[in-house]
Amino acid sequence: MKILLVEDEAEFAAAVRGALEREKYVVDCADRLALAREALRGNSYDLALLDRSLPDGDGLSLVPAMRAALPGVHIIVLSARGDVADRVAGLDEGADDYLSKPFALEELFARIRAVRRRPAQLGLDHIQVGSLVFDLDNDEASVNGVPLTLSRRELRVLATLIRRRGRTVLRETLEQGVYGFDDAIQSNTLDSHISRLRRKLAAVEAGVEIHAIKGVGYLLRAQP
């Protein structure tokens, strides 16, 4: 599991990161909102640990952006602001849990296990990036509620990219997601599908971009 730790207290962040990594979690750290937003544009996370009192604002302001960029992500607020009003504000803003500092690491690990067991992940049948929503159950894409007309191959390209949004998808992985074993694949066929898909997404202002990673594959993410 990959975790984004948003925390500006360097010593505390290093301690939490070390403890999480010993539990085999992969952890990225950001010490302010701006860096966290940048991390969200280029990476995918399963869980975020979010401080509130950051140098450039309240960490709670990041929750809507996290929900939009990473549908299904779990969010736990870690804050010294632990009175009832603060905890209620955190949960009302969309956090899955709120843990007041100081806390025992064992309790943090238990909270992580608990939020991962919750059925919130059932919402993963839809993924939203920018204004584009993809229905994974039905392989349908829409922008602002209007269905997109895409060919079967274009839909499979989009499904493969959006499941791995924010990450580079290898060309081989895309071909595996788009073609069957018996399909004859021409060298530029995949690129042609992606080129048409780009034009269709741009025409409806979907708010996403597909980048070619030379010699490696492609990456889909929300436009900044």
Number of strands: 14
The radius of gyration computed from the alpha-carbon positions, rounded to a whole number of angstroms, is: 19 Å
- Rounded average pLDDT: 87
Number of helices: 8
Please identify the structural class as seen in this structure.
alpha/beta
Sheet with the most strands? Answer: 5 strands, parallel
Give the N-terminus to C-terminus distance in angstroms: 26 Å
Strand order of the largest sheet: 2-1-3-6-7
Overall form: elongated
Low-confidence stretches: none
What are the secondary-structure elements, in order, as H or E? EHEHEEEHEHEHEEEEHEHHEE
Which percent bin holds the helix content? 25-40%
Strand content: 25-35%
Structure report:
With 224 residues, the protein is of the alpha/beta class. It is built from 8 helices and 14 strands. The protein has helices at residues 10-22, 33-42, 63-69, 84-93, 105-117, 152-163, 171-178, 189-203, and strands at 2-6, 26-30, 47-50, 53-54, 57-58, 74-79, 97-100, 126-129, 132-135, 140-143, 146-147, 168-170, 208-213, 217-222. The protein has a 5-stranded parallel beta sheet, with helices on both faces. Strand 9 and strand 10 (140-143) form a beta hairpin. Helix 6 crosses helix 7 and helix 6 packs across helix 8. The protein is elongated. The model has no long low-confidence stretch (mean pLDDT 87).
